[in-house]
Write a structure and sequence with these properties.
Transmembrane segments: 56-74, 94-116, 137-158, 164-183, 280-302, 314-333
Protein name: M48 family metallopeptidase
Number of strands: 4
Family: Belongs to the peptidase M48 family.
Domain Peptidase M48: 196-396
Radius of gyration: 23 Å
Structural class: mainly alpha
Largest sheet: 4 strands, mixed
Distance between the termini: 52 Å
Helix content: over 70%
Shape: globular
Strand content: under 5%
InterPro entries: CAXX_Prtase_1, Peptidase_M48, Peptidase_M48_N
């Protein structure tokens, strides 16, 4: 069984690398053709950024594969020998801390390179070393407290129930819903400063949009995203009474009022079409599949790894192998998401105008250096949004 899992992971890596090479070839060829949507200079810069990102992604994939080989060949059994005596709940927490800590330290140089070299070279990243370090420390603190509690809960469930994977799914799904509920009011403010939108005219227009859509929010807020990045974005965060409209300060600065309202109208389209509920249902399905698979791994897998069939090793294998499951499901999720994006575009254009939404999408692509086309395989496996060329065609 372990050899099968190893072969599947190897095939997964090969497919990812193949898709990346196809995307690089596609963009490299397209960049020498007539510019589409973007100005010639922006078109060329977006192409170069896309190629650089794909090459960086290939390196990250190979590093992840190296980590996978390390863990299944040596790391898991060594870590168990160092840390585990009885396989109880708190030993499992310490084991998972160590497992994730090693992965974090290996991936940290890549993240630093991406943030301070790749993204800065293309004019995106504005973050300084102090802010970056504080972000890392805050994330670590959250993981130690909240992540430790979640690991302890799962470990306890594994030790307490025969069909633990079903109970574990229910518990983790409830945790995911809870995190989504508290994220905009309790978690996001740890990293960004939220201030009420100070433009009364724009606030009134947004509130009018929300009322027409039947969405009750806890307010419209702007965040200081520009202290880290120049990219533009906006989102509706939270569940229940915690829902709020969040605008990046970069978005408010770059878009006109009508363009901004069209973008928010697009997001409201997702609300009207109940896309959030669809996404929750799909996420629940994927989580259930993962728990079902990893909750029923045969003992031969653990024997081949020379580790005990205990909570700590089960959780580590779940974290190690879950990318395989999510990758297989991505085409289904992506197809559904792209369909939803077209419908949300139609709603957003009706809220303001087709022209306003088209202009907003083109500005977003220009500012975010988003190449407007992609290889079909890249679209199938990675795109939750249709390529900009297709979105504008559909709007017309």
């Amino acid at each position: 069984m372990l050899s099968i899992l190893g072969t599947l992971y190897f095939v997964y890596v090969l497919i990812k690398l193949y898709i990346a090479t196809q995307e690089i070839g596609f963009v490299a060829k397209a960049q020498h053709q007539n510019a589409v949507i973007l100005s010639p200079s922006s078109f060329l810069k977006a192409a170069r950024y896309k190629i650089a990102s794909e090459r960086f992604g290939m390196v990250s994939t190979l590093v992840d594969y190296g980590l996978f080989l390390f863990w299944i060949g040596y790391g898991l059994r060594t870590l168990e020998g160092w840390l585990i005596t009885n396989g109880g709940v708190w030993e499992s927490v310490v084991f998972v801390y160590a497992f994730i800590g090693v992965n974090y330290l290996v991936g940290l140089p890549l993240d630093i390179y991406s943030t301070f070299f790749k993204d800065k070279a293309f004019g995106f990243s504005t973050i300084d070393a102090k802010t970056y370090a504080l972000d890392q420390l805050k994330a670590m603190a959250l993981f130690v407290v909240a992540g430790g509690a979640i690991v302890a809960l799962v470990a306890w469930i594994i030790l307490s129930f025969a069909s633990w994977w079903l109970w574990g799914f229910g518990a983790i799904f409830a945790v995911v819903l809870f995190i989504n509920m508290i994220y905009p009011t309790l978690i996001a403010p740890i990293f960004n400063r939220f201030t009420p939108l100070e433009n009364p005219e724009l606030s009134a227009s947004i509130e009018s949009l929300l009322q027409k859509a039947g969405l009750k929010s806890s307010g419209v807020f702007m965040i200081d995203a520009s202290k880290r990045d120049k990219r533009l974005n906006a989102y509706f965060g939270g569940l229940g009474k915690s829902k709020r409209v969040v605008l990046f300060d970069t978005l408010v600065e770059k878009l006109s009022k009508s363009e901004l309202l069209a973008v928010l109208g697009h997001e409201l389209g997702h609300f009207k079409h109940k896309d959030m509920l669809k996404n929750v249902a799909m996420s629940a399905f994927m989580l259930l599949v993962m728990f079902g698979l990893f909750g029923n791994l045969p003992a031969s897998v653990y024997e081949a790894l020379h580790v005990s069939m205990s909570p700590h090793s089960t959780i580590a294998l779940f974290l190690l192998l879950s990318p395989l499951v999510s990758f297989v499901m991505m085409p289904l999720f992506g197809a559904m998401s792209r369909h939803n994006e077209y419908a949300a575009d139609a709603y957003g254009s009706a809220c303001e105008s087709k022209e306003a939404l088209k202009n907003a999408l083109m500005k977003l692509a220009d500012e975010n250096k988003s190449f407007p086309m992609s290889h079909p395989l890249q679209i199938a496996f990675y795109h939750t949004h249709p390529p900009l060329v297709e979105r504008l065609k559909r709007l017309e």
